[in-house]
Amino acid sequence: MSSESDAASAVGSTSAGSSVSAGQPLTGVAVSPGRASGPVVRVAEALGEPAATPAPADPAAEAARIAPAAQAVAARLEKQAESASGEAETILITTAAMAADPALATQAEQLVKTQNLPASRAVYQAAEKFAEALAAAGGYMAERVRDIRDVRDRLVAELLGIDPPGVPELTSPSVLVARDLAPADTAGLDPAKVLALVTEEGGPTSHTAILARALGIPAVVAVRGLLALDAAALAVDGDAGTVAPADPAAPIVTATALGPVEWNGTGATADGHRVKVYGNVGSAADAQAAADAGAEGVGLFRTEFCYLDAPSEPSVEEQRKAYTAVLAPFRGKPVIVRTLDAGADKPLAFLSPEAEPNPALGVRGLRIAFDRPDVLDRQLEAIASAARDSGAEVSVMAPMVATAEEASWFADRVRAAGIARAGVMIEIPAAALTAREILDAVDFVSVGTNDLAQYTFAADRQLGAVAKLNDPWQPGLLRLLRFIGDAAKATGKPAGVCGEAAADPRLALVLAGLGLTSLSMNAPAVRAVGASLASVTLAECETIAAAALAATDPAAARAAAAR
Ligand SMILES: C=C(OP(=O)(O)O)C(=O)O
Ligand SMILES: [Mg+2]
């Protein structure tokens, strides 16, 4: 941590909130608790297509600007890489190498000379040609499309003399303001210099929310009017979901509401009531990260993440290998593998349904398997083999289940494949309301709060404009969760939560109090949730849950659950 942010934390411990609001607050969705106030740094917007005119007066001189600009971009990225580590460092080094690659500059120079284009436009067109070729190559190459476009935008910005898109290098602790943050925006982000994250768009399951919780910094998303706000400093309240102009001359303050971060690795309340803490994974790297973070197992393996760019159905053997690699770090430990959840926000090329007017309400998840049971059976065969190969204690569950009848159909197929434990996700309100009957048909359930909120509130989970409805602290959602917790208690069968709600250390206490038996989340949240559970007794969780349930809105529920 820098000395400046050390100073910021020291100030925060005694005077948090003292510089709050010199103006009217804006409201959004609180996604990561804590308060912070400090100078604003804006994340530059994506660049549009640069103009093809005016034609340069001296094409040779215009073309000669490209190589030095590429070198300058590469040098800046290399410098950033020096102070980064891990995956961020790798991303920055790779991007720098792409910027320095003479192939792009040479192509662009040709376009300036032959088509008399401004250098910025020539770079844009040349990069698009590379991007198209990479996309056509598919697989790993296609994943590089985003990188080449990133290099393109940096180079165009350099040539136009404007700020490059993405997060600028932070020189002192700042409140980061953006339309939304993409995963690439956050590579190289120095958490010690980010006081808070605030976005105009995004929702509780957005990348910004996940990142902020992982870093333990306050965040508010879906703040309408944020980008139009002309403020040099902001006070951010990650509990109340408010953002207000602050006095830029006032000292930087921070006060996070994070609980203790020490955790002994066994998910349980202080009086020993077990609530297992699992990891959500979609790749072998995620699985390793979850194991390293101390996850007791995997509560959600999103198998579709292995095949988002697969042009055709992977063979049983290919699937076996991919799943074994993900299961490997969890030998002897529980892992819940979810069968393909294709459709809506996660289309798979080989399982695309007919074009639908409302894909989120259409043939997705398990519904695809009703038409294509052969695909499900091949996947189950691969999962059963991977379970044997890896020695993990594998259970399988289905996504998008609406009725007990569907749950029973799925469980029969899982057992026929030689897999002992079958469960389903509860992410449709009808399934929550019939949780008891569903639990009678399967061995366990796991609640997908991301989709359960989307379907309960009829609010697209990807749309910032309706993000307030998708807040997992909404009493309407909490009451459905109580229903599921009651069904788990009545049947004595496990009911976990694997949606983003499980990653909120304070909401975790409410979930435990409602009777949910395990919580599964992205690796960075594991320790904070484990520590939060360990800090209270089950009776305290029940009191907190009752208080949150009785609230009339999410802010009141959060406040009621605060201790
Ligand atoms: C965990 C869930 O599944 P996904 O986010 O993959 O749809 C959910 O819906 O909460
Ligand atoms: Mg879901």
Automatic annotation (TrEMBL):
Stretches that traverse the bilayer: none
Requisite cofactors: Mg(2+)
UniProt entry tagged with the keyword Amino-acid biosynthesis: no
EC number annotated for this UniProt entry: 2.7.3.9
All residue ranges annotated as the PEP-utilising enzyme C-terminal domain in the record: 268-536
Stretches for region Disordered: 1-35
Subcellular locations according to the entry: Cytoplasm
Reaction(s) this enzyme catalyzes, per UniProt: L-histidyl-[protein] + phosphoenolpyruvate = N(pros)-phospho-L-histidyl-[protein] + pyruvate
UniProt key word Aminoacyl-tRNA synthetase: no
Positions of the PEP-utilising enzyme mobile domain: 172-241
An annotated Gene Ontology molecular function: phosphoenolpyruvate-protein phosphotransferase activity
Family matches, as InterPro entries: PEP-util_enz_mobile_dom, PEP-utilizing_PTS_enzyme, PEP_util_AS, PEP_util_C, PEP_util_CS, Phosphohistidine_dom_sf, PTS_EI, PTS_EI-like
Keywords: Cytoplasm, Kinase, Magnesium, Metal-binding, Phosphotransferase system, Sugar transport, Transferase, Transport
Skewed-composition ranges (Low complexity): 1-23
Superkingdom classification of source: Bacteria
Ranges where the Phosphotransferase system enzyme I N-terminal domain occurs: 27-144
SUPFAM superfamilies: Enzyme I of the PEP:sugar phosphotransferase system HPr-binding (sub)domain, Phosphoenolpyruvate/pyruvate domain, Phosphohistidine domain
Described function: General (non sugar-specific) component of the phosphoenolpyruvate-dependent sugar phosphotransferase system (sugar PTS). This major carbohydrate active-transport system catalyzes the phosphorylation of incoming sugar substrates concomitantly with their translocation across the cell membrane. Enzyme I transfers the phosphoryl group from phosphoenolpyruvate (PEP) to the phosphoryl carrier protein (HPr).
UniProt similarity note: Belongs to the PEP-utilizing enzyme family.
The protein's name: Phosphoenolpyruvate-protein phosphotransferase
Species, as recorded: Amycolatopsis samaneae
Gene: ptsP
